[in-house]
């Protein structure tokens, strides 16, 4: 089965992919219309007039409308997926469903974005990213905020619960990693998984560092969490995985195995660099990606720390702090870290 056939099978099951534009490098975001009872939209696209117009047009071409939506399901907290939710809920009166642990986060979007930026800024400085880079990135993040929005979740979902529709049942599965709130929806009868950004065919979903949903400011081990989530998804006998960006996945086991192997190789590469000399996460990112470590400092920091977490857990790497900056050293390597 190729991607086109997978989309056709999804359409036969009343699931229509809507491709909504975003201002972000990732390009369009996939939202899904579920023609069922209730009439359901999974994710909304970002908060922009262009996204709203396109959503409207694509719903109309399928004989639906924003006003006719009865339920909006949010797959995770990222703004390219939920920016239009409040506008849609106001127009249609639709219920808004999301995983229970994300409800507060989604309700306090503005305040939360502020805290998320502070968290990211602190982390970046602690891991050796220069101040001017941190400030520049925070300005970019602030300028993107308008594409998000807060939303009142009227229907909190529990991990493992089953949502009942007229024509289907969807099991709610919390799969944190890419973000702490990632949720996938499993139709075991049709063997279709609606996975949003948990699994994307053409991009390796980044386990982005984010504040934990419990309100603490401890840095979560995002990659370890994500690998665990992928292993659980691997066990599902899915035939079609519908993603938040790009085309459907028709062999998720091979894709997951490939991603896990790639992470393993990257982890070993990072270990080799740390073995040569103690380095900060920023040093490591520059050694691997060069200038991308500057322009995409937070993304690459997330990636490095995710792998270093695994090495620390394996007892191969340890952390040293001097002058407020963390360096990683191979265990048993006695050379001191340089500030
Ligand atoms: Zn996304």
Spell out the key features of this protein.
single chain; 339 residues; alpha/beta; five-stranded mixed sheet; binds zinc ion
General description of the model:
The protein is α/β, with parallel strands linked by helices and 339 residues long. It has twelve helices and 13 strands. A hairpin with an 8-residue loop joins strand 8 and strand 9 (183-187). Helix 8 packs antiparallel against helix 9 (252-276) and helix 9 (252-276) packs across helix 12. The longest helix is centred in the C-terminal third of the chain and has 25 residues, at 252-276. The model has no long low-confidence stretch (mean pLDDT 93). It binds zinc ion. Residues 26, 29, 78, 80-81, 197, 244-245 line the site of zinc ion.
Give the cofactors and ligands.
zinc ion
> Quick check: average pLDDT?
93
Report how far the terminal alpha carbons are from each other.
Answer: 54 Å
Q: Specify the overall morphology.
A: globular
Low-confidence stretches: none
The beta-strand count equals 13
The SSE order reads: HEEEHEHHEHHHEEEEEHEHHHHEE
So how many helices?
12
Biggest sheet statistics: 6 strands, mixed
Q: Structural class of the helix and strand makeup?
A: alpha/beta
Could you estimate the helical fraction of the residues in percent?
40-55%
SSE order and pairing:
Layout: H1 3-12, E1 15-20, E2 29-34, E3 40-42, H2 49-61, E4 71-73, H3 79-82, H4 85-92, E5 95-99, H5 103-107, H6 109-126, H7 131-144, E6 155-157, E7 162-164, E8 169-174, E9 183-187, E10 192-196, H8 222-234, E11 240-243, H9 252-276, H10 281-289, H11 292-295, H12 297-313, E12 317-322, E13 325-330
Parallel strand pairs: 3-4, 4-5, 5-6, 10-11
Antiparallel strand pairs: 1-2, 2-3, 7-8, 8-9, 9-10, 12-13
Helix pairs in contact: 6-7, 8-9, 9-12, 10-12
The structure holds zinc ion.
